[in-house]
Amino acid sequence: MNLPFEPQRQTQDYQASDAAHHIHAFVDQKALNAEGPRVMVRGEGLYLWDSEGKRYLDGMSGLWCTQLGYGRKDLTAAAAAQMDQLAYYNMFFHTTHPAVIELSELLFSLLPGHYSHVIYTNSGSEANEVLIRTVRRYWQVLGKPQKTIMIGRWNGYHGSTLAASALGGMKFMHEMGGLIPDVAHIDEPYWYAQGGDLTPAEFGRRCALQLEEKILELGAQNVAGFIAEPFQGAGGMIFPPESYWPEIQRICRQYDVLLCADEVIGGFGRTGEWFAHQYFGFEPDTLSIAKGLTSGYLPMGGLVLSKRMAEALVERGGVFAHGLTYSGHPVAAAVALANLKALRDEGIVRQVKDDTGPYLQKLLHEVFGNHPLIGEIQGIGLLAALQFVEDKGTRKRFANENDLAWQCRTFGFEEGVIIRSTLGRMIMAPALVASRAELDELVDKTRIAVDRTARIAGKL
Ligand code: PXG
Q1: Where are the domains of the chain?
Q2: Pocket-forming residues, ligand 1, beta carbon under 6 Å
Q3: What is the pLDDT of residues 99-125, one digit of tens each?
Q4: Which of 46, 256, 260, 403 can bridge 286 by disulfide, Cβ–Cβ 3.0-4.6 Å?
């Protein structure tokens, strides 16, 4: 291999240099420097190897993105061939190129028929940045320029750039450098934690009705759109009650508020459907996409628009004052095209729906259904969350649930499996190519980590 960096160095050498130059995501950097990060050096299928030669089953698809797993030669070949032919060009200067055209043809063949256009970006955060300006532009074109406010949800996640983090509802992110004007939030539909004595269906409806209240409070004539993840990912893999989305859709339509689905995690087969909104049965006006679009092999995202919006912007909008150097990057587009072809032609999304998805969900219920530490198992397709609980009867959560979940995640690493912790929930989202045997291993190693945590929590 002709890698441009040295063959493997000592782990401590990497760690010292890493500490000297990097500020990592969502950590106390000083604490991480003291501990030293794990150095990942190789990936193949669902497995990763670190610089010490330890192997991990990646139960998180990297960051919810490697739908095809690691080491796919067809994706590497697509990137190399496109780099040889045309390493870079752009979509400014009245130009376009074959890779992005074929990618979009394929993308829209996979999407429901009421979508027609896409604005490519490099990430999910950027997709949501573009969303705000595009939605506002749409209302300007329709003669309603006062419709500017976006409503998001507390504990929603839409990215780390300024506007994307403002749309999201992570308060600790808002505290680091601010909100932007014209963004409001409503509560998340997290029944297990916040549902009290209500049934999930009642709670789901109540949460949705908060949107109506917020629109009325702000004035429907001022509200541009509502943005939400079909199910919350980074916030803890929280699935809304069934009553939620139909009510949200009714409200958006009634008040002429655009329904904007953030499909950055839910898209590209995670739920067994191509897009998570299809699983939940609603019809958003826009879709923010990224991650699984390229299986994470290269950065690429996008904002998908309904025909109705695209028609207004194209036919009546005049100049669209937006552009990124790397929109529709040819190499990313070629990789995305190869990735989507593989997901489609190898029947991977169908396999998640008909086989591996139900298999994983059944297995989790068998293994954790009566586990003393687990109060609820939520999941669909190749996604699942295990909720830690102190008292199953009252759904009382541990005061130190965050620490327990973090500890469980650390046990997972020790056992050779990567799962994610969020507050008191353990999350898994393996690559969509996972075999039944790999899912067995994922659940088995997770059980060991959860049992070890249960012992610390005094539950075993
Ligand atoms: N929207 C959603 C729903 C996301 O989950 C983004 C937007 C931002 O995408 P970019 O490509 O700008 O990162 C995301 C990203 C985690 C985790 O551990 C989740 C994300 C990113 C990193 C970590 O849950 N989601």
Answers
A1: 38-71+347-456, 74-345
A2: 63, 123-125, 128, 157-159, 229, 233-234, 262, 264-265, 290, 301, 420
A3: 999 999 999 999 999 999 999 999 999
A4: 260
